[in-house]
Amino acid sequence: MIEQKSINKSLTAAIRQSDGSMLTPFEQAKRYSSELPYSKRPRWIVTSNFQSFYIYDMEKPGGDPEIIQLENLEKEYYRLQFLVDEGNTNLQREMEVSIAAGEIVGLLYDALAKQYADPTTERAMKSLNILCVRMVFCLYAEDAGIFGQHGISDI
Q: Which of 2, 75, 88, 135 is 20–30 Å from 98 (CA)?
């Protein structure tokens, strides 16, 4: 399970949740995990703010996380190998689709940014990020059938 935060968010500080509770990113991921059936619970929880990656092994409750800094990722990427099932033949196709989707979201972001008087302000960037994440979430939800067939793409 991976819990991602904005680059300016601490991975060790509690953040107010939508229900008003204060949880660290790790505690937030653990809460998600606790709602899953035992057979679906993750062995690993990774939290990231795009500068640091904290890796928690759920087989070692209370243990300190392994930490990888982004600037060291090129040398230490092997430490994230547990995230990849190299035996999965669909992995390459999924990677290609994910990369293409990321490029499309980038184009969407750029197109929406042009609608702002100054898209470089902190408020504009935050609004754009939230909008893009929510749009992607809605597309995934549509794909999963939550909105019914073509509930979003027909709008």
A: 75
Task: Kindly state the DSSP code that residue 106 receives in the 8-state scheme.
Answer: H
Report how far residue 96's alpha carbon sits from residue 25's, in angstroms, rounded to the nearest whole number: 28
Task: List Cβ neighbours of 13 (8 Å cut-off, separation of 6 or more).
Answer: 24
100/13: higher pLDDT:
13
Bridge partners of residue 57, in order along the sequence: 44
Indicate the pTM of the whole model: 0.56
pLDDT, tens digit, for every residue of 96-153? Answer: 777 888 888 889 999 999 999 998 999 999 999 999 888 888 877 777 777 776 666 6
What is the token pair recorded at 130?
Answer: 């939230």
Hey, what's the torsion of the CAs at 81, 83, 84, 88, to 10 degrees? 150
Decide if 102 contacts 94 (C-beta within 8 A).
Answer: no
Which residue is listed with tokens 């430490």?
79
For the chain, how are helix, strand and coil distributed in percent, rounded to 5? 45, 15, 40
Q: Is the dihedral of CA 100, 106, 107, 109 positive or negative?
A: positive
Write out the E strands in the chain: 2-4, 15-16, 22-23, 44-48, 52-57, 66-69
